[in-house]
């Protein structure tokens, strides 16, 4: 009731001592300037969002519906047509599906413990999801390519609006950490929220990419993905990051099935690989501080078979201490000292992709979300992420992911 009362008060225009970014306060504008008009419209939209916290019948109804998840094989073989009908079919699927998935996540936010749900940063993310639901559910039926084109603009806007959600969730839960009574519940919430976010972004980005004509691609699916090439891309990025931090970086050797090519979606690998490489390089450099220009190589092995493919990253970074090993997959746990995070890296995934494109670099650690998020993503894709550590020697990380060629049962997005 207190959270409802707080938001009711804001909706009525009572000024509360909450961060400005969370204020849903209608602005009283005496100016006719474009800027003031924009703020009035923004305040009106936020006021609608507050009301929807309590008048949530449409959200509740949508949350009762089951999600319809697609296999990558379905996305691959329905991603082309001569007359462009696949574009409209994809848009109509998203038009029905995205509000359902967003409503499921709103339900997850509402189930958070009271004190955590009231955290201003968590509330801000909650509000983002409610606004996304409103915009998606109120969008009229997509009947032609003109309507589909406008729908694409909405998708791009929402993808941009939500690009920092992982970072914001990390900040909010770090701020609320002392109030967390059951970490299993929070882990479940984060697993569901982050993997749902990955699925939504993959579906939306796939639809937008269907408009592009790229060699070896159908939407976001690469029909001839080379694990070696995508590893090399992220090795180059991680080495630059490491060199910026430590003045040097380990060399990386890639072996195994280096010529393998098969259909797969690069996006999740673009999230997972930089995190794993960053961790291995940081461990290697910090365990050889006395000889920073003479550090052991990191070895990456690719193993490909009919069912799945495995990427093993082996370092000689001293391994993980026994008392830490059980916690490395926990959210908000990091072996790096607290308080030295850099906003350019933060939790890495979306930001790290931006950084490699912009040439930025930053420190070698973040909020401690990297490994647990990578593990959640791998499991969402029907695979696994496992760590084997030899304390005093080094660590082997095994990323295992299923093929999507339709020969075996695949994951659903």
UniProtKB/TrEMBL annotation:
| Pfam families documented for this protein | BCDHK_Adom3, HATPase_c
Q: What SUPFAM superfamilies does the record point to?
A: alpha-ketoacid dehydrogenase kinase, N-terminal domain, ATPase domain of HSP90 chaperone/DNA topoisomerase II/histidine kinase
Superkingdom of the source species? Eukaryota
Listed under GO biological process in this entry are: regulation of glucose metabolic process
Into which EC class is this enzyme placed? transferase
According to the UniProt entry, what is the EC number of this protein? 2.7.11.-
Q: What is its main location?
A: mitochondrion
Q: Oxidoreductase: is it a keyword of this entry? A: no
Any Gene Ontology CC annotation: mitochondrial matrix
User: Domain named Histidine kinase: which ranges?
Assistant: 269-405
Single GO term (MF): ATP binding
The record's PROSITE patterns line, in alphabetical order, gives: HIS_KIN
Protein's cellular compartments: Mitochondrion matrix
Q: Does the keyword Transferase apply?
A: yes
Concerning its family, UniProt says:
Belongs to the PDK/BCKDK protein kinase family.
Please give the name of this protein: Protein-serine/threonine kinase
- Taxonomy-wise, where does this protein's organism fall, top ranks first? Eukaryota, Metazoa, Chordata, Craniata, Vertebrata
